[in-house]
């Protein structure tokens, strides 16, 4: 009915918009298919443990991006969730070695989600810099708790976490098995975030990001929406931390340190905040540079090089690499 | 048929022979990985200088052992356990590295040790401090070369007590590392008739030490012990110097202080500080000769950790040469069998728990007037015999030691 009211000009615009959306979704599907194929064969060419690390950080950045890119909340305390996932999983798998690896990871994820609920309840009452500061302060509390408590091994961390067996019969000690397991976890997290963003709930989140008072006046329970996004992000971050612990068989304070919260911001901004692939690309760049530079004669310059890249990125393409790239595509291939 | 069987027999025999030859020195190369903090806090303690010391050791061996080439790999661990563990795993999986050296931050070292033990390779630890590495975390696959927290705190406490300091004040970092130092110290002090008149713990890390230093000054103790490390230790020392702690007659004893710390803080701040060191460049002709050679390449004098990288590598390569093998356990038992006599240690012995026991030295930082050159920093007051300095095997919780 409503279509008939519109004048031809409007109809034309709607049609163009719809076509563009269809084209974009087709493009995304192709990208995704290519990604899956590459991801499946990659461990035969590249060292699998490195790829697993990359996937863990990519999941971490994607989870962070859900909050920053789609709910507009800049959390400066995400390291706490990464570390909680890691420590709880490490502890559970070490102490109760009869449990399957998947249950250990679930335990870590659940603990992170619970912590996220606690953080979220306190933090979402404020916006902007205050929100960031509250999350930072809470994360520092968690950091000191991990440093002092005995189950984490203090500043030495947990070592020798057994990788164990998946569902009781797949040996994860084998790097290839482990890799496909991590890939499955990453895809699960990634698709869950995708689904969330494109759901009506995701639309409301974007509305809140754009104009919170208007969302309130439209009758949305803004706090509940934000809290759910926060918990979801914390849980997925915990999942990334838990997986990382199983991959490396260790959990350490590095993951709880505020540097880690900064690093994930760097990854997300570098790749493109609020873009689907951005965090993945950003995490890949940061992890790859860290790994390969630290093995090269340029090793001492890792931090400087990362810093310069970040500055250049902020100055030249503010939408991040993926944001800049997709603008380029839009401009040239309508 | 007979001929064919003979041929097969010959082929099998040849195969066996060649495989035993491979077992001797794998891949016909000795592959050494150097993992250390190249860009962070521990850069000056070990870092690029340690790599240079490793290269010196390899060059002194002519770049080969029994005709087999020595190949080096190196990486920055960024002080992150996951980065270090990943690097070492990759070295072993893809490059079949035989031995890992350097190894500074304890959390990194512990992560690396687990992998080295799993894969049955060898780790030679020079930079790390924790005495737990050869106690509850010992393994048959690593050797701790230069020093540990037990030797540093015990050595300093013993020696300072013998110099007459009876009343102690302990300033400790409030985490496991500081607590361990504090406990070790208290034990020694009380066992030797001294007294702890006061102690205070500071959060880790801390920037403002003024209230703690004031408490130390007010305590009336003769000796103020700093049971912390790194930036905390530097901050505490600087505050102590500003408050004129040593001018007012109290002695400062640092538990974990390295040559590079003293050099960067300067003698104005550190003068009079008592500390234990595993090695000092200006002890005798042999150490001076090696240190000068190092100084030419790096432009700095070597720390004990850097000298330890050289010494441990030479000892390792000697063991490889003697056994003509790079199998970790064959080489390790040869290393244990052979005493260490080089510019780093005299009559040093590697124990079954992986601890290299050698003499330690009590040093006092010179005053600016005493110091004749940039690196003329320590007066060596006395030698602490290795058996006294290190934790005795009777107290060991190491799984390799049957008590």
Q: Estimate the mean pLDDT confidence of chain A.
A: 89
Span between termini of chain A = 29 Å
How many β strands of chain B by DSSP?
A: 15
Strand portion of chain A, in percent? under 5%
Instruction: Please give the order of strands in the largest beta sheet of chain B.
Output: 2-3-1-4-5-6
Task: State the share of residues found in helices of chain B, binned by percent.
Answer: 40-55%
List the helices and strands and how they pair.
The complex is a heterodimer of chains A (334) and B (403).
Chain A: H1 2-5, H2 8-41, H3 48-71, H4 78-95, H5 101-123, H6 128-148, E1 165-166, E2 170-171, H7 175-198, H8 200-210, H9 212-217, H10 222-248, H11 258-271, H12 278-294, H13 302-316, H14 320-332
Antiparallel strand pairs in A: 1-2
Helix pairs in contact in A: 3-7, 3-10, 3-11, 3-12, 4-5, 4-6, 4-10, 5-6, 5-10, 7-8, 7-10, 8-10, 11-12, 11-14
Chain B: H1 2-24, E1 29-36, H2 47-60, E2 64-65, E3 68-76, H3 81-95, E4 99-102, H4 106-118, E5 122-125, E6 142-144, H5 149-162, E7 167-173, H6 176-191, E8 195-202, H7 210-218, E9 223-227, H8 230-242, E10 251-254, H9 259-265, H10 267-270, E11 274-277, H11 285-298, H12 304-323, H13 328-337, E12 349-350, E13 356-357, E14 360-365, E15 378-384, H14 386-389
Parallel strand pairs in B: 1-3, 1-4, 4-5, 5-6, 7-8, 7-9, 9-10
Antiparallel strand pairs in B: 2-3, 11-14, 12-13, 14-15
How would you sum up this structure, described in words?
The complex is a heterodimer of chains A (334) and B (403). Chain A is mainly α and 334 residues long. Chain A has a domain of 211 residues. In chain A, 75% of the residues lie in helices and 1% in strands. Chain A has 14 helices and 2 strands; from the N terminus they run ααααααββαααααααα. Chain A has a two-stranded antiparallel sheet with strand order 1-2. In chain A, strand 1 and strand 2 form a beta hairpin. In chain A, helix 4 runs antiparallel to helix 5, helix 4 packs parallel to helix 6 and helix 7 packs across helix 8. The longest helix of chain A has 34 residues. Chain B has 2 domains: 191 residues, Response regulator (Rossmann fold), CATH 3.40.50.2300; 155 residues, 3-Layer(aba) Sandwich (Rossmann fold), CATH 3.40.50.2300. The relative contact order of chain B is 0.13. About 2% of the residues of chain B have low confidence. Chains A and B meet through helix 3 and helix 12 of A and strand 3, helix 3 and helix 4 of B.
């Amino acid at each position: 009915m409503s279509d008939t009211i519109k004048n031809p000009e409007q109809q034309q615009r709607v049609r163009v918009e719809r076509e563009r959306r269809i084209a974009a979704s087709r493009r995304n599907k192709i990208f995704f298919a290519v990604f899956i194929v590459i991801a499946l064969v990659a461990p035969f060419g590249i060292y699998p443990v490195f790829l697993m690390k990359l996937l863990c950080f990519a999941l971490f950045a994607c989870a962070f991006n859900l909050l920053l890119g789609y709910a507009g909340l800049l959390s400066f305390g995400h390291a706490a969730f990464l570390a909680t996932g890691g420590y709880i999983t490490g502890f559970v798998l070490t102490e109760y070695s009869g449990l399957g690896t998947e249950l250990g990871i679930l335990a870590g994820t659940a603990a992170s989600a619970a912590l996220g609920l606690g953080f979220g309840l306190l933090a979402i009452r404020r916006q902007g810099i205050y929100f960031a500061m509250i999350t930072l302060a809470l994360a520092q509390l968690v950091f000191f708790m991990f440093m002092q408590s005995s189950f984490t091994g203090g500043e030495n961390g947990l070592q020798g976490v057994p990788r164990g067996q998946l569902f009781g019969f797949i040996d994860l000690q084998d790097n290839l098995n482990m890799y496909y397991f991590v890939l499955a976890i990453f895809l699960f997290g990634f698709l869950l975030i995708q689904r969330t963003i494109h759901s009506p709930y995701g639309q409301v989140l974007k509305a809140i990001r754009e104009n919170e008072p208007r969302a309130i006046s439209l009758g949305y329970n803004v706090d509940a929406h934000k809290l759910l996004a926060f918990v979801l992000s914390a849980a997925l971050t915990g999942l990334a931390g838990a997986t990382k612990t199983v991959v490396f068989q260790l959990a350490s304070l590095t993951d709880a340190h505020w540097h880690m919260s900064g690093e994930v911001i760097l990854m997300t901004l570098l790749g493109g905040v609020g873009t689907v692939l951005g965090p993945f690309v950003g995490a890949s760049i940061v992890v790859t540079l860290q790994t390969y530079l630290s093995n090269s004669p340029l090793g001492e310059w890792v931090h400087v090089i990362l810093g310069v890249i970040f500055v250049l990125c902020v100055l030249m393409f503010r939408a991040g690499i993926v944001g800049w790239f997709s603008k380029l595509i839009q401009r040239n291939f309508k | 048929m007979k001929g064919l069987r003979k041929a097969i027999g010959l082929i099998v025999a040849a195969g066996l022979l060649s495989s035993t030859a491979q077992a001797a020195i794998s891949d016909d190369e000795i592959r050494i990985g150097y993992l250390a903090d190249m860009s962070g806090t521990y850069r000056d303690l070990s870092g690029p200088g340690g790599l240079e010391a490793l290269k010196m050791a390899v060059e002194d061996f002519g770049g080969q052992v029994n005709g087999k080439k020595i190949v080096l790999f190196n990486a920055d661990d960024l002080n992150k356990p996951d980065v270090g563990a990943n690097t070492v795993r990759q070295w072993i999986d893809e490059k079949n590295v035989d031995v890992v050296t350097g190894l500074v931050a304890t959390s990194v070292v512990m992560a690396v040790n687990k992998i080295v033990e799993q894969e049955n390779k060898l780790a030679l630890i020079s930079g790390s401090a924790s005495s737990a590495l050869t106690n509850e975390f010992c393994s048959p696959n690593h050797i701790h070369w230069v020093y540990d927290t037990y030797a540093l705190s015990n050595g300093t406490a013993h020696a300072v007590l013998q110099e007459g300091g009876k009343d102690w004040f302990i300033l400790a970092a409030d985490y496991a590392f500081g607590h361990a130092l504090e406990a070790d110290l208290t034990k020694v002090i009380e066992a030797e008739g001294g007294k702890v008149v006061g102690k205070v713990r500071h959060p880790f890390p801390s920037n403002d030490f003024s209230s703690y230093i004031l408490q130390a000054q007010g305590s009336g103790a003769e000796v103020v012990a700093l049971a912390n490390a790194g930036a905390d230790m530097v901050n505490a020392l600087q505050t102590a110097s500003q408050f004129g702690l040593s001018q007012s007659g109290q002695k400062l004893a640092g538990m974990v202080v390295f040559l590079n710390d003293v050099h960067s803080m300067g003698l104005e701040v550190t003068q009079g500080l008592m500390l234990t060191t595993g090695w000092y460049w200006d002890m005798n002709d042999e150490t001076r000769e090696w240190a000068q050679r190092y100084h030419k390449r790096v432009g700095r004098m070597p720390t004990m950790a850097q000298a330890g990288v050289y010494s441990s590598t030479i000892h390792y390569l000697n063991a490889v040469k003697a056994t003509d093998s790079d199998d970790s356990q064959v080489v390790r038992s040869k290393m244990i069998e052979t005493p260490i006599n080089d510019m780093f240690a005299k009559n040093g012995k590697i124990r079954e728990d992986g601890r290299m026991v050698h003499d330690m030295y009590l040093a006092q930082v010179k005053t600016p007037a005493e110091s004749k050159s940039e690196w003329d920093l320590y007066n060596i007051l006395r030698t602490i015999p290795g058996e006294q300095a290190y934790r005795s095997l009777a107290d060991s919780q190491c799984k390799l030691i049957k008590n």
